[in-house]
Specification:
By secondary structure, this protein is α/β, with parallel strands linked by helices. About 65% of the residues lie in helices and about 10% in strands. The protein has a six-stranded mixed sheet, with helices on both faces. Strands 2-1-4-5 form a four-stranded antiparallel sheet, covered by helices on one side. The structure holds adenosine-5'-diphosphate and magnesium ion. The site of adenosine-5'-diphosphate has 12 residues, from helix 10.
């Protein structure tokens, strides 16, 4: 059951790589095989050297082959041969060093390019995609799993290939020198191979999976701990969070300890087996040769072969284990890469918003939920109009906005601008300034938060946005002005200040349409009243959709949509509601 795992994981890596990268991967394996072959050459050189030490005339033969004159004294022969051996070793190690650098640089380049590619796909994924998932999944896949796939998965396969080359060559040499010994070594290796494939590898796969789970859980826990620290302290749940983290982190460490320790075991087994083989070889040779001195050369060769084969075999088994442990990560990267593939927003030609935004018979249902969040919604928002949306919590107001923004795709009905343009387009998003209920601020300066994600900040637009959002007075009294850092998620600002920064951010690109999703509901009455003045001021000459909890907030709106349980209850005006005494302050 384990080999298909390996081959299917390799298939997955191949799927994820570009053609060029696949060629590079083969290149890494070939380069590694080259150094392995050189290794075999050096192994035989040592055999030759051992022979020469024993019988210098053989050395003379070799030296004559490379152009040395004959009749050298034994001391000279040994010296020259030693120098040649030294040069061969130097070359081998230079090539080996080049290979190591090539391998690591190539793999790391693939690693960062792939991460970028994956993040691009996440960036293009549907907003709906994010509704059903935990954000630590993306974090672990991009940072941990991808890393493991490249450094663990790909390097191990390349190393296994190159080690196999050495192994086959060395075994070939042994076959040439002593067939019965070769058969014994081969038999032992097959037994070890089967043992690792059938017993060790499934276990490593299981550990890999459990470790991945534990890593994800502990990461999730950490994120929650730092994000929700205030609540955690106030609810007296510090211990509980630390304990939960401890549980997963300890589990992860334990599995890691078992995994690393078991990695060493095969080496010990192999070592014992090889020393056993070595003793057997001596016994064999003692029967064939008369004196230990005569065996010296051959024995030296065997020793080198043995001690080269041993770590080689050990490395193959280790690398298989490394690969096996990386398989769950490879599978997850593959799955995530496939899932985030949906192209969700479209590029349409630049257009001018002239008439209206229209929803026709729109129904929307969240994934894994039975009840529709929006039910047969139809209405029009004319250009330049100010629309208020009111309704109880959970009546579908935010969902309605997300549908208007093209973030959520309704299962039924259409949402079009001027009867032809799609809301799920970059061009529509460009025209919108959106102010959410809870502002997301990055741990950066006020300026960077307003120009959100823009490297070159346009000073005049920045100042216009600051003035319009009525942030000027606040910013002027800060020692560092708009270069002041806001702290993580704006922790150093008050709720009203954060909302104003959010408004300035929405205004920075001078949008035609402004959307406020309960932008003031988290504020106290006085701050809300002040902020409403700002909102009303920036709403002039724009199309505005304003969601509010309280009707009074919407008194400047042209029309008011009243939502109830995902449907429109009525569309009316503030004056009518006032006349009917429906306005409750
Ligand atoms: N991501 C989601 N997954 C499933 N159900 C959701 C999700 N977001 C909101 N809902 C449900 O959809 C309904 C409408 O929610 P929402 O539009 O946020 O209401 P409002 O903004 O009016 O308070 C609620 O019943 C809410 O529980
Ligand atoms: Mg809402």
């Amino acid at each position: 059951m384990s080999s298909p795992f390996i081959s299917s994981a390799i298939q997955k890596i191949r799927f994820l790589l570009t053609k060029e990268e696949k060629i590079k991967w083969v290149g890494i394996a070939l380069f590694a095989s080259c150094t392995s072959l050189l290794e075999v050459v050096t192994a035989s050189v040592i055999v030759v050297f051992a022979q020469v030490l024993n019988q210098p005339d053989i050395g003379q033969k070799y030296l004559s082959m490379v152009g040395f004159s004959s009749g050298l004294v034994p001391g000279r022969i040994v010296l020259y041969i030693a120098i040649i051996v030294g040069i061969i070793y130097l070359v081998k190690n230079l090539v080996a060093a080049a290979e190591v650098f090539y391998q690591n640089f190539t793999i790391q380049k693939m690693n960062y390019l792939f991460k970028e590619k994956l993040l691009h796909r996440y960036a293009e994924a549907d907003y709906g995609f994010y509704l059903t998932r935990n954000s630590s999944l993306g974090v672990t896949v991009v940072s941990g799993d991808t890393e493991l796939m490249f450094s663990g998965g790909m390097i191990s396969i390349a190393s296994i290939l190159s080690e196999s080359v050495i192994f086959i060559c060395l075994i070939g040499m042994v076959v040439y020198m002593n067939p019965s010994l070769a058969i014994t070594i081969f038999g032992v290796s097959v037994v070890l191979w089967l043992f690792s494939i059938k017993i060790m590898l499934p276990q490593f796969y299981k550990w890999g999976q459990r470790m991945q789970e534990a890593a994800l859980n502990s990461e999730q826990n950490l994120l929650q701990f730092f994000h929700g620290f205030k609540e955690i302290v106030l609810l007296g749940k510090r211990e509980a969070f630390v304990n939960a983290f401890q549980y997963h982190s300890r589990k992860k460490s334990r599995i890691q300890a078992i995994q690393t320790a078991t990695n060493v075991l095969p080496r010990m087994i192999i070592e014992v087996l090889f020393v056993g083989l070595f003793v057997t070889t001596i016994a064999f040779l003692c029967l064939e040769h008369e004196s230990p001195v005569q065996m010296l050369g051959v024995l030296g060769g065997y020793l080198y072969l043995g001690f080269r084969l041993m770590p080689g075999l050990n490395r193959v088994i280790n690398m298989l284990n490394v690969f096996k442990a990386a398989i769950p990560s490879i599978e997850r990267v593959y799955k995530e890469y496939a899932v985030s593939a949906k192209e969700s927003y479209v590029d349409i030609p630049e257009f001018v918003f002239e008439e209206c935004i229209e929803l026709k018979d729109v129904s929307f249902c969240y994934p894994n939920v039975k009840k529709n969040a929006l039910q047969n919604i139809s209405f029009q928002i004319k250009k330049g109009e100010c629309i208020g949306v009111v309704g109880e919590t959970g009546s579908g107001k935010s969902t309605l906005i997300d549908v208007l923004l093209g973030l959520l795709k309704p299962q039924k009905g259409t949402v079009l601008i001027d009867d032809m343009y799609l809301v799920g387009s970059y061009q529509w998003h460009q025209k919108i300034g959106y102010v959410p209920q809870s502002v997301y601020l990055t741990d950066d300066t006020i300026e960077a938060n307003i120009a959100f994600g823009e490297k070159k900040i346009d000073e005049s637009r920045l100042n216009a946005a600051i003035n319009a959002a009525q942030l000027r007075k606040f910013i002027d009294q800060l020692p560092e002005g708009f270069k002041t850092f806001v702290g993580e998620r704006g922790i150093r600002l008050s709720g009203g200040e954060r909302q104003r920064i959010s408004i300035a951010r929405a205004l920075y690109r001078n949008p035609e349409v402004l959307i406020f999703d309960e932008a003031t509901s988290a504020l106290d009455n006085e701050t809300e009243a002040k902020l409403m003045e700002t909102i009303n001021a920036v709403s002039q000459n724009r199309t505005v959709i304003m969601i509010a909890h309280r009707l009074t907030t919407l008194k400047n709106c042209d029309r008011i949509v009243m939502m109830e349980k995902g449907s429109i209850d009525q569309i009316t005006t503030y004056e009518i509601l006032q006349k009917n005494k429906q306005v409750v302050v």
